[in-house]
Design brief:
With 200 residues, the protein is an alpha/beta fold. It has a single domain, classed as Rossmann fold. It is built from 6 helices and 7 strands. Strands 3-2-1-4-5-7-6 form a 7-stranded mixed β-sheet, sandwiched between helices. Strand 1, helix 3 and strand 2 form a beta-alpha-beta unit. The N and C termini lie far apart (38 Å). Bound molecules: S-adenosylmethionine (SAM). S-adenosylmethionine binds next to helix 3 and strand 2.
Length: 200
Amino acid sequence: MKEEYLKQMEEYADENNIPIMNKRGINFLCKFIEQNDIRNILEIGTAIGYSASKMAMCGRNVHVISIERDQERYIEAVKNIKKLKLDKKITLVLGDANDLSINFGDEKFDLILIDAAKAQYLKFFKKFENNLADDGVFISDNMNFHGYVDAESEIKSRNLRQLITKLKKYITFLEENDKYDTKFYKVGDGLAITAKKGVF
Ligand SMILES: C[S@@+](CC[C@H](N)C(=O)[O-])C[C@H]1O[C@@H](n2cnc3c(N)ncnc32)[C@H](O)[C@@H]1O
């Protein structure tokens, strides 16, 4: 029944042009969660709660806090999570992740998934860096951004070009970082896994 409902969520996302993680990306993530006994997850960018639900379902001890700024999507996510009976495993937060009122004090997360506005990845990273457990990881989605990251010269739209420039700046920040190591994976739309030096 849950699988059927998740399929309906995929269809809803498709029909309403709501970007959700693709199957290969989410399966990779799930395997990572299982293999590394990930428990405490912070997700930036809930949309309709698809990846939050998938992550909550892949480990018995997983708890997800997920932030979404769009009220309509947040309401849809609340509904979906109730239907899937995951409301004890997922806490949804309505608001802009950059807002000062959204902070988790000293709470530490094993995994922080960044899957929201692509131009703001660096901001999200810096804001939640102190909430990463010592052996925790950031996972950033859309590192290839549908192939545009490697084909910048073909981009006609100015907005898209600016977005790709910011995404590239974030990639350089990860690659040249003194405190963190990052592994890039071509799975899904491109995933980056970042951990403090010495963890990998
Ligand atoms: C790619 S979708 C998330 C998909 C979701 N992780 C999944 O795979 O099911 C990105 C979402 O992030 C939200 N978003 C973008 N910037 C945000 C911000 N600064 N704070 C909170 N949510 C944000 C958007 O409204 C959008 O619904």
